[in-house]
Amino acid sequence: EEMGACLALPSSQVTSPDVTFGPQQGAAYQARPAPTQSQDASAPPGLPMVNVQCPANMAPGAKLYIVTPEGFRLEAFIPPGISAGQSFGVQYDPAALAVASANMPGQPSAPPQASVLQNPQHGARTSGFGFLNQALGTAQQALTQANEVVAARTGRKAEEWVQEARTQAYAKTVNLRTQISSQMESALANADNSKVSALLDSAMAAKLLDGRNAPASIRRAADQVASRQLQEAIASEDPRRLKGALIAANRLNATHLPEFAAAAQTYQKVKKLPPGWDVSKMVLHRQGDKMVAKTDIEDPAVLAKFQRLLDITHRKVYTRDRMGDAVPERLQLLKVHVVTNDDLWANYMARREWVRRDLEADPAGFERYNVETTDTLEDSVADGGEAAESIAETLAAEFGEPLRKDVNETFLFHGTTKQAADSITTSDFRLNLAGTNAGTLYGRGVYFAENASKSDEYTRPDTHNLRYMLLCRTLLGRAYYLDQKDADPRACEEACLRGKFHSVLGDRKKARGTFREFIVFDEEQVYPNYILVYRRVDPQLDPARTLTVQVPLGAAPGTILQVTAPNGQTLQVVVPAGCAVGQTFSMQY
Asked: Exposed, middle or buried by CB within 10 Å (0-12, 13-18, 19+), for 76?
């Protein structure tokens, strides 16, 4: 078996220091009865012994999984002084093993063969269910033994002790609630603010403010403290004090106060957040010290605009970055989360103003670029549907801030994973990881695309086969345009980090007929506006462009292979999940 599951016995039943029992992993070896002359004179008389031959590449201290002639499975350590090819004896008690085996669910009397299963999809071996049954049986047996020990030593059942502990814990909670409530009444009557604050800390630690059943005095104190802090923060118009007071009010369950709504409005004004943002929701859904909310868009008309944007920017062009995956027929939108993150927005708006002033002071070299996600192109409206320009304007207006053409502000796609999408929209892009998924053709920056089908290349499905893509506001500013087939990544970095350019536009569409790529080297030039959740609608495979690949030795799911197509083209392909060595899968090129 793949899992060397065997019986767990009390240490008192282990008759040889060279034998251990437990659900350990190991190779299976059929043991044979040892000759009589190999019996250890010091071993208990009457117990059988099996002779085990040490296999190659095994050393003293290693574990072997063995099977006795009766069919019981054991594990043995290779004793000191034994090398490959030499034999040693293992003594066991078949009667004790038989009794324990009869009481353990799933423990067979002979080595099971049916527990090695075949996956009908790809024939990969999977571990049997016998091990799980044995583990459950072992746990139940240990629990029964523990209950018996407790009853024997204390005269009471274990469940009685558990119930008594629960009763005592409840009594302590009630007593603590009464004490804090009484002391809080006194502190409020004496206007002792420091005492009130200390008691509130104790109440929060004891979770007395959770739910609707908080004691009246504690609830009253929490409201008073939160109200005072909110009023002081509003008067100061200090964004840090406002943020702290809002978070504190949320921790005190005091978001129902009118001062909370007033403080949220003041914070929105001071931070210059778009008018459509719900600051209260950002407080309630904050992540750590981040004021951020990721809200589902439920309006079917708005969702239809996102689907339209995916459709009109979808181009069925294959690049090697697909690693053998076929280009989807289309991308089917399932859900959209709108991201409101005050820190990221403040950084982005400050950077936008800096780029605007830089271009105003030196407009040389600035060129306005049409982008498929933001501008109306002839081939994108051939079907008479809504154009990208109209969609972008609507989305920007509903978010609360229009796009500025004088800084080349546009919407662009960024393909990613579920975990990365959550991290980016909470804490921003990380330039130290730039290029780890998309490559670094134009330098170590953050890469974006105007075509959804291009960004789709860099997504990875979650456990439900869903994929994640960001639609980001991006400041291109003065773009460093390149249409050569080969680019110098260091020159691209130099042009933006030390030169007068704000981004790179790599025109691979012109150079190789694929896609244009947009790269920025300052994460503050990007605001991750929306998380798009979708699935691929895959096309029928074209037999003329389908290649069958066999997984070679040493490869596993996720391994990148280099293969040669019948036309001589060299391709890279990723071994898909569920494919083992020797199995085959199909790819389209």
From this structure: buried
